[in-house]
Backbone:
């Protein structure tokens, strides 16, 4: 019995040793460590605590990614450790980030709140832990737990926007459209307060007449508004800082407006993203003769809009200065010093000491000095910068120029719409020559296009406008047309090599198309991702191929990591063939979640196939489509989102380019600036999507869903 006991005890000892070998060894107490066994000293928890923690709103906007880099570089240079976390638009995630940084022992917290009021709980938790809180760019509201507020002079931002509109106005009765940021963001209120202080006297005296807010109109005689009064106004004019929300609201305002409420209008837009969206909407309305629109942030895209005459101004806030001020405040607090504050902002609970950075109003007149010469951007970031202040070429009406508009083939609604746009421009320019809309059949598109160009050359027309479906096969006849003195413009789809083509009128930036399609795929399939396939038009369609390559490139971004492209098929822009290809994809990939069709024929055919087979819950459809053809499928959930641009505008702009070239008003050289009637000013630029060739970029995209597709389809 004793032997058994001894054996059992031995086994237990061995087992215990084996188990302990599989687990991390416990850290010995200092007095137990032998000198000869001592290892290099590891940092104790107290010594690895971070000095500064930073919480920013989202990784999805360039502004905050730029801030992240600047914070890291500057704090590293100052000798402090920092960790930067992103809230991705969620106040709950923001609170988790704050709690995580508190746990890691930060001494100073810099928070740019997603929602100023919701962030109060996070600030109070940090205060309880002895952490100093700096509210960055946006004010944390309704709490005493904010030590400093680092911001631009937000009142001045709104005031400069308002003053720009006042300076451009003359006479009485100018239509004024007001827009604001998100009602959850205190900055939206402060910007609006600054603008209202300048605009209100001119509203009261009749210089401006408010057209899109009954709440603002009711308060037109009140110089100083309460927060509740501003809240009611912002409730009617909020863009939520979102491009699509802003565009939809502007379009709704214009739909509701009478003709007399348009004409020469003035627009208070809160920031650059919304300014571009609103400018696109107003620019597309034929009853709007001109508009002055404000902005804020000096985003690259808006600087280009300013250069091109599509946005009037922006308020430049040098983020380099703001980051520097925030770091200066954090370092002072770490050294138990008092940051130098100037002024204060009341957050609904206390007056928070403010460290304010100056802002600068930028328009076409000073864009070079304010942004390029100052080193914020480089001249290479923009096109037409040197011509920004130069007058644009205006077409001389009444020429006699025979012109041909050549679609890929006949019988497609989008090409009919492009023809309508070309006819509008033809009449507007009082062209005494003929405009012919000639195209091949779908089954003979390549050879048919080549034949039509050859015939038009023989007939010595003045200009040919080609939506190319023949790849580089059409280049020899296009070159022959050029050699015969005929102007050759491509639209919708260019000649890949650019040989024989003077200018390509691009509906949108082709790289942007890939990102838009990737974003729609992610939106529809969700963060869990899944398999999807592409249903394209034809292998020879240069535009389709470029969009698909752009999407493949976009999918390399980690945020799309769970989206799996499994196949690429072609329906040759034939409804029946596209319908059958869509069903074949479902059979081939039973677990596929989405068909992406960057073709108006393909997307409608694929959506109908899913609807007919009762597959809409299993397989969604997205891509590029016409609202009139897609409204049914979007409303029933088969195609939750899709995008497109105006083909009427594309035909109109293409005609203007061809007319200007054929009449000799422009030569077709990079840097030339011209007016295109109701669509405004454009610049010819090098085409960044091809090795050779020039382009005129139209833009923009509109993403359609249940919220806006019905109105757009009418």
Residues:
């Amino acid at each position: 019995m004793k032997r058994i006991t001894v054996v059992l005890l031995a086994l237990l000892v061995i087992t215990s040793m084996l188990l302990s070998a599989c687990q991390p060894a416990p850290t010995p107490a200092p007095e137990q460590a032998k000198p000869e066994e001592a290892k290099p000293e590891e940092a104790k928890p107290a010594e690895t605590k971070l000095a500064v923690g930073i919480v920013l709103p989202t990784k999805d906007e360039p502004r905050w990614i730029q801030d992240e880099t600047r914070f890291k570089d500057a704090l590293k240079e100052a000798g402090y450790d920092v960790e930067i976390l992103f809230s991705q638009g969620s106040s709950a995630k923001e609170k988790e980030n704050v709690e995580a940084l508190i746990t890691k022992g930060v001494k100073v917290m810099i928070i740019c709140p997603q929602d100023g009021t919701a962030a109060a709980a996070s600030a109070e938790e940090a205060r309880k832990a002895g952490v100093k809180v700096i509210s960055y760019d946006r004010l944390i509201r309704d709490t005493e737990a904010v030590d400093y507020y680092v911001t631009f002079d937000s009142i001045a931002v709104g005031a400069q926007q308002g003053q720009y509109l006042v300076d451009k106005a003359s006479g009485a009765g100018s239509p004024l459209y007001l827009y604001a940021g998100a009602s959850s963001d205190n900055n939206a209120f402060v910007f609006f307060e600054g603008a209202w202080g300048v605009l209100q006297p001119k509203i009261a005296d009749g210089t401006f007449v408010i057209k899109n807010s009954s709440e603002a109109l009711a308060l037109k005689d009140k110089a100083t508004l309460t927060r509740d009064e501003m809240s009611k106004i912002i409730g009617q004019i909020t863009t939520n800082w979102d491009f699509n929300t802003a565009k939809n609201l502007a379009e709704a305002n214009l739909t509701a407006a009478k003709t007399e409420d348009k004409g020469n209008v003035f627009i208070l837009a809160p920031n650059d993203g919304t300014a571009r969206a609103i400018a696109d909407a107003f620019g597309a309305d034929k009853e709007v003769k001109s508009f002055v629109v404000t902005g804020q942030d000096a985003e690259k895209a808006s600087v280009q809009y300013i250069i091109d005459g599509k946005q009037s101004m922006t308020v430049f806030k040098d983020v380099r200065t703001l980051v520097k001020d925030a770091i200066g405040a954090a370092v002072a607090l770490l050294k138990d010093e008092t940051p130098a504050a100037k002024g204060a902002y009341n957050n609904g609970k206390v007056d928070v000491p403010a460290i304010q950075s100056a802002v600068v109003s930028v328009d076409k007149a000073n864009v070079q000095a304010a942004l390029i010469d100052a080193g914020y951007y480089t001249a290479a970031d923009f096109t037409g910068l040197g011509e920004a202040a130069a007058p644009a070429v205006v077409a001389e009406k009444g020429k006699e120029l025979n012109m041909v508009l050549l679609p890929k083939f006949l019988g497609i609604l989008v090409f009919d719409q492009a023809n309508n746009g070309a006819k509008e421009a033809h009449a507007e320019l009082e062209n005494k020559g003929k405009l012919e809309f000639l195209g091949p059949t779908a089954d003979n598109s390549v050879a048919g296009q080549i034949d039509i160009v050859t015939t038009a050359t023989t007939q010595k027309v003045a200009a040919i406008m080609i939506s190319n479906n023949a790849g580089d096969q059409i280049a020899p006849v296009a070159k022959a047309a050029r050699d015969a003195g005929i102007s050759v413009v491509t639209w919708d789809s260019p000649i890949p090599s650019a040989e024989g083509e003077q200018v390509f009128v691009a509906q949108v930036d082709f790289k942007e198309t890939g990102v838009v399609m990737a974003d729609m795929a992610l939106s529809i399939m969700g963060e869990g991702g899944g398999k999807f396939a592409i249903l394209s038009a034809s292998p020879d369609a240069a535009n389709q191929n470029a969009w698909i390559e752009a999407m493949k490139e976009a999918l390399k971004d980690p945020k799309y990591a769970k989206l799996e492209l499994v196949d690429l098929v072609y329906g040759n822009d034939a409804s029946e063939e596209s319908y059958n290809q869509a069903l074949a994809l479902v059979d081939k990939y039973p677990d596929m979640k989405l068909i992406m069709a960057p073709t108006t024929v393909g997307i409608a055919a694929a959506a109908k196939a899913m609807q007919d087979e009762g597959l809409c819950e299993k397989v969604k459809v997205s891509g590029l489509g016409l609202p009139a053809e897609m409204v049914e499928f979007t409303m029933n959930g088969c195609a939750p989102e899709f995008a497109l641009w105006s083909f009427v505008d594309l035909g109109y702009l293409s005609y203007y380019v061809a007319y200007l070239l054929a009449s000799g008003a422009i030569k077709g050289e990079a840097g030339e600036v011209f007016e295109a009637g109701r669509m405004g000013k454009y610049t010819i630029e090098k085409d960044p999507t091809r090795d050779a060739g020039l382009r005129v970029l139209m833009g923009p995209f509109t993403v359609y869903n249940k919220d806006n597709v019905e109105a757009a389809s009418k």
